[in-house]
Amino acid sequence: MTLLRELLDSLRSFVATVGAVALFFVRVLGQIPRALLRPGLIVEQVYNAGALSLVIIMTCGLFVGMVLGLQGYDLLQRFGSEDALGTGSALALIKELGPVVTALLFAGRAGTALASEIGLMRATDQLAAMEMMAVDPFRRVVAPRFLGGCIAVPLLTMIFISIGIFGVQLIGVQQLGVDAAAFWSQMRASVDVSDVMEGVIKGCVFGVACSLIAVYEGYTATPTAEGVGRATTRTVVISAVLTLLLDYMLTAAML
Questions:
Q1: pTM of full prediction above 0.70
Q2: What is the mean predicted confidence (pLDDT) over 25-29?
């Protein structure tokens, strides 16, 4: 009975949390039109979430592409299909590795920054002060940061994919001797618009999910140093699990 009661309590808590996040999301969506009237705030958040993440995105994209080039060449060489390295690597980066790894890196770098920033504003009563001055924190703080993350993730995904393909080319063509003409021609012939759109859609969905979790955890954080730390940790964990779950659901739907 004790175990059953604990399971029911956990299930009830999970459902309540999902409902709270859904209501929070609806409230944020309601403030987006008003937030768009101040584009400067959104541009600033795109810079904070996107431009400041470029170094880690480009570095990881390069090394992921280089590793993919080595592993792909080793696999394809066993079947005498080294020239298909460009096709296989491009599809893997566009449809899976690019969106997923970018979302995980975004959650670890920008997502934690968003959650800790808003959580600190909660802990220092800055949000309460805004409410006392008749300034809606959702319109002034939450919505611009949410929009900034939603815009930044798809752009970062495209950059990650581009740098990753360059890394594959650097290893496959320059180091391992794959024919450059075959590498690029097979890639252009095999990758179509639907493949690119799949990567773009995944990047947009992951951006919405990771940004929502970050701003929700920061806004609802316990106003203490420990509470802000827990909110930051939950942001990374929940964003990572949710990204992989959504990746499976989107892949199954698009196939």
A1: yes
A2: 92
